[in-house]
Design goal:
The complex is a heterodimer of chains A (173) and B (437). Chain A has 173 residues and is mainly alpha-helical. Chain A has a domain of 121 residues: Cytochrome c-like domain (Cytochrome Bc1 Complex, Chain D, domain 2, Orthogonal Bundle). Chain A contains 6 helices and 4 strands. The N terminus of chain A is likely disordered. With 437 residues, chain B is of the alpha+beta class. Helix content of chain B is 14%, strand content 30%. Chain B contains 8 helices and 26 strands. In chain B, strands 7-6-15-10-11 form a 5-stranded mixed sheet. In chain B, strands 8, 9, 12, 13 and 14 form a 5-stranded antiparallel sheet that branches. In chain B, α1 packs across α3. The radius of gyration of chain B is 24 Å and the shape is globular. The N terminus of chain B is likely disordered. The chains are: A mainly alpha (173), B alpha+beta (437). Chains A and B meet through α1, β1, α2, α5 and β4 of A and β6, β7, α6, β10 and α7 of B. β4 of chain A pairs parallel with β17 of chain B, so a sheet runs across the interface.
Chain lengths: 173, 437
Amino acid sequence: MFTSKTVGGLLAIAFGTLVHAAESPNLGTLASGAEVAAYDLTVMPDGTGLPVGSGSVAQGMRLYTEQCFACHGAEGEGALNDRLAGGHGSLATRAPVKTIGSFWPYATTLFDYIRRAMPYAEPGSLSNDEIYSLTAYLLYINGIVDDEAVMDARVLPEVVMPNRDNFVWAYKP
Amino acid sequence: MSEHDTTVTQEHSGGKLRAGITELLPAAGNGLLGRRSFVKAGLGAAGGIALMQAVPASAARPGHMRSPGPGMSEYGSPAPAEANVKRIGIGSQRGTTGSGASRSPLEHLHGIVTPSGLHFERHHAGVPEIDPASHNILIHGLVKRPLLFTMDALARYPIVSRLQFLECSGNSGTLLAADPPQLSCGELHGLVSGSEWGGVPLAVLLDEAGVLPAARWLIAEGADASVMSRSVPLAKGMDDAIVALYQNGERLRPENGYPARLFLPGWEGNMSVKWLRRINVTAQPAMTKDETSKYSDLQPDGSSLLFTFPMAVKSVITSPSPGLAMQGPGLYQIAGIAWSGNGRIRRVDVSADGGKSWVQAALDDLVLPKSLTRFTSAWRWDGSPGVLLSRAVDETGAVQPTRKSLMSNRAAGAFYHYNAIQAWRVGEAGKVNNVYV
């Protein structure tokens, strides 16, 4: 267990001097707002962190066919890799199918994850508009938004995922 | 080695070991012996072999004793004859090489430290090649001062080190299958490893940044191609979390997060984010893909648990185990590892008759919190079939569950946190199989 106090003690030992408990090496450099913005990739469920931009289901469908279809199958039915659609109402059965539509609690996670990690071989290659489009399309094939939907920083956090209220926190801070 | 041989040896070995033989008493069914007897009997048995066997003349000076061997080396490697001891159960998602896992070959290891090169791996987009000179860790969000730390700066902080385990919460998940998979101990349970982790207490860095009162969570992020990210309670960050730079005395291996990783003792491995690049201090969790879609626990009623962090009490017998066949009736040492994410191991019991009777195993000297702990028990195998079990209890009093009780209230799609008692059946010919009891 580390408290500031024990750490202070450690520092005193490490430097062989009598230092005040609160003393610390202080070797971090102050990060500027621009530096923080350059690093920050987190999108929170309330939409914090979503960038400007927008994208439609139709644009997403085209991108999905080009960049995602090979691994995730037609309309997200799954191919080499994870199934991304369907499975609604299956969670309490003997054959649960966990997908974005049947399982994921927050739509913001889609933007966050695609921006981080997809497409698998070329993460970081999509523009924000493209990520919004793919998010719109994946919500559409899961029956969560209609084919006219356009996603942006205002709309996406308002999308209510069907399974949202079925999560219990085993840890509460 | 029969009891008679042992007795003879004991007499030759002098009075001191004689006490050992009187302790060689059955302590539980099917040949399990009292827990302190084997070490002494073992010494006697070894002495007995030396006394009884004549030294063959050809062995007096083999080739390697007739000319000097190769000289020093810059970085040592295992003996050529041990080349078969490798990571096992390596698999990746179809069409990828970097989204998968490899396992520690537990059946070949004896200790609470896993050699770094055999530590299990779980990557989501392969192992990034990171130049430490251009890698930084950013701490920002609900702090007074957002701070960037270079790797050189971190290395100047006081380093603490501890022997602790790391376990993927998907470890042993193959045992959810209806029929017991016929795999080795490491293939089944090798997503756990033990290391001496050295690093900077995260609390020191957070204190320097000045955490604001509203903060409750840390969003940790890695510098791999998937930019893997998990939400970690601030309380854990202030408790025993470290930013690890060292593993088993040397800098982290690339596959274990070089140049810096988060290490959260006792908690599911995925949270100990490798290749750490950023910690965002927040009021709420981010609900990343790897804490919602994955690493959450479906319940039978269709609801799911989020944030099931600690790895519960668990143990497994590593020897005998599948692939390590018995070599005829006689005295054996049953050996294994036990661990708990909630503290120290208090005791481990072993059974050789499928759970009808148990004997308390001996714990090796180092019984450390949130660490692998080794246990052993003496067994006189008479050659008849038996079922070996081990059951660990941790210092909170938590008892490792039977498979039946673990499965009784588990959803079909629940995959993580499998910690049930493992059963190995020893057949008449000495072959060892995975069985469900």
